[in-house]
Specification:
The complex is a heterodimer.
Chain A (H helix, E strand, L loop, with lengths): L3 H4 L2 H20 L5 H39 L2 H16 L2 H15 L4 H4 L4 H4 L3 H26 L2 H9 L4 H31 L11 H12 L3 H28 L3
Helix pairs in contact in A: 3-4, 3-8, 3-10, 3-11, 4-8, 5-8, 8-10, 9-10, 10-12
Chain B lengths: L5 H4 L9 E12 L2 E12 L3 E6 L5 H8 L7 E6 L2 E2 L11 H8 L2 E4 L11 H11 L5 H14 L15 H13 L5 E5 L7 H16 L4 E4 L3 H7 L2 E6 L2 E6 L1 H6 L4 H10 L1
Parallel strand pairs in B: 3-8, 3-9, 6-7, 7-8
Antiparallel strand pairs in B: 1-2, 1-4, 4-5, 9-10
The chains are: A mainly alpha, B alpha/beta.
Chain lengths: ~260, ~270
């Protein structure tokens, strides 16, 4: 915790004043008159960034659990495909994965009649399902590798105690093994989620209008370059800060 | 075949059918290494059987075979009259039976093995609520009584890592008691503790012995074994070298190996 007294030191006061001056200068001498016009679109984009982040990390993590488990303790016919998946995902650029799914699958689907006539077609014609799929698989690939280590590193004695008291295997997994594995990787997971946040602008390349796409729109419409980017940076930093705070709270609740 | 001392081959006159635990001719090998070479034991209700022996004598393995944390190679294990069904290679035939029998055996480990992501109270109610399906409120009431008993009621909401080894082990005993086990299995419960913390754990175990709980106790604390045990077994290289009531075994050991062992640890 930062105390008031710690802040009230000469060098800190000078730094804070400099920062305040910088903010003031930005507010006065940069152009912000475009904001009212673009604010609704920006909020929409911000919301899209946030939900894409939340949905893909949650889905990706759910996928990472079986991926990690298969690699840590699975038989070869599960562990080899899981390891291959993680290696391929981690070994190729995310941008490439997004494009392969969108331009590859996205152009394959219209040629298949039963997909065109299916209930899902209205969604599959849009870009966001491919964005969500690509980001989910990417997160799953990275987290699958992390969960492998997490499952393997849970103290054997903890699992043995569960067995010794007659816990069925599924209960033992749900109550002891999984929570301990997740707790062990919480700090890593927070960092990975921030990396995922910073990967979301890539989906702008396949026409998903999230917050980065909005800032590009402002630039191309108004030829104002730095101000939207400045605001964009602040948006990402705020979200990253919230993620850090959230994970810190969770970590505090369950000590190691 | 090594010659057994007369004390070891003594016929057990107690009735086997109402035994809390009966083990017959238990063998266990790790690869080519035979750790247990035919160990038998009968514990009646209320018995406190202390199992002593040097490092590598197989005493911990023996205890862990009883609840199948280690799979025996051959032999018979009968808990409360129910024989555990084993395949010829020793693996359990029926996982559910093992799980059911395990809920009647409260195990206390050398390294405590409390679940570190749960508070003491959560540790104690975990098995009653999630395995035995006892209503949560009842489980909590009982858990608080047990924590009170081991002197940790005020630490109910603390995580294990904030506690001393002695406190953790007392909590682990409360956790084992929470399933109201027909037999308690203690696997060197004080070996991982600092010397000044051993006493508080032994005090708890002593009260359990006094109230007539059936216990199997693998221990290095000879004085304690002598004090609480009703029966002592000395294992040497996977065989029972000598057994008997504590006064006889400690006061008048027959086997040369036991004499030497007692001199070394005493």
């Amino acid at each position: 915790m930062i105390h008031w007294r710690d802040l009230m030191q000469p060098h800190r006061i000078v730094l804070m004043l400099l920062f305040a001056a910088l903010v003031l200068w930005c507010a006065i001498s940069l152009r912000w008159d475009w904001i009212p016009q673009y604010a609704p679109l920006a909020l929409e984009g911000l919301w899209r960034t946030v939900w894409i982040l939340v949905v893909t990390t949650v889905l990706g993590f759910m996928l990472a659990i079986p991926l990690g488990l298969a690699q840590a303790v699975g038989p070869w016919y599960l562990s080899i495909p899981a390891r291959t998946f993680c290696t391929v995902i981690r070994g190729t650029p995310l941008l490439l994965q997004i494009w392969l799914l969108y331009y590859g699958l996205g152009s394959l689907f219209p040629q298949i009649p039963w997909i065109r006539s299916s209930e899902l077609w209205p969604y599959l014609r849009q870009a966001w399902p491919y964005a969500v799929l690509a980001l989910t698989l990417s997160y799953a690939g990275y987290e699958g590798e992390i969960m492998r280590g997490a499952f393997a590193s849970v103290n054997k004695g903890q699992l043995e105690a569960a067995s010794a008291f007659g816990m069925p295997r599924l209960t033992r997994f749900r109550r002891i093994w999984l929570p301990q594995a997740i707790r062990n990787v919480l700090p890593t997971l927070g960092g990975e989620t921030i990396l995922q946040l910073k990967a979301t602008p890539l989906v702008a390349t396949i026409t998903v209008v999230e917050i980065y796409a909005v800032s590009s729109r402002v630039r191309s419409d108004t030829f104002i370059v730095y101000e939207p980017l400045l605001l964009l940076a602040i948006s990402y930093m705020s979200i990253a800060g919230l993620i850090t705070l959230a994970f810190r709270q969770i970590e505090k609740r369950v000590p190691r | 075949m090594a010659t057994l001392h007369p004390a070891a081959s003594e016929v057990d006159s107690r009735q086997p059918q109402d035994a809390a635990i009966q083990v017959r001719d238990l063998h266990k090998s790790f690869g080519h290494l035979e750790v247990l070479k035919g160990v038998s034991l009968t514990a009646q209700k209320g018995d406190v059987v202390a199992i002593i022996g040097g490092s590598g004598s197989g005493k911990s393995t023996f205890l862990r075979c009883i609840n199948f944390l280690e799979t025996p190679s051959s032999g018979q294990i009968i808990v409360g009259g129910e024989q555990i069904e084993m395949r010829p290679d020793g693996t359990p035939r029926n996982r559910r039976q093992i799980e059911r029998i395990r809920t009647r055996l409260g195990m206390v480990f050398q390294a405590f093995n409390l679940w570190t992501h749960r508070t003491l109270l959560e540790n104690v109610i975990e098995v009653p609520v999630h395995v035995l399906k006892i209503p949560r409120a009842d489980a909590i009431a009982r858990a608080m009584t047990l924590l009170e008993r081991v002197g940790l009621a005020d630490k109910a909401d603390t995580f294990p890592s904030f506690l001393s080894g002695g406190q953790q082990q007392r909590a682990a005993i409360a956790r084992a008691l929470a399933v109201d086990p027909s037999v308690m299995l203690f696997d060197e419960p004080t070996s991982a503790l600092d010397p000044e913390l051993v006493g508080e754990v032994l005090t708890v175990i002593r009260t359990l012995a006094a109230e007539g709980r059936t216990m199997l106790l693998v221990t290095h604390e000879m004085k304690f074994a002598k004090e609480v045990a009703t029966h002592v077994i000395y294992l040497f290289e996977g065989r029972i070298e000598e057994q008997g009531p504590p006064d006889t075994l400690f006061g008048n050991p027959q086997s040369a190996r036991l004499k030497q062992f007692l001199q070394t640890v005493g």
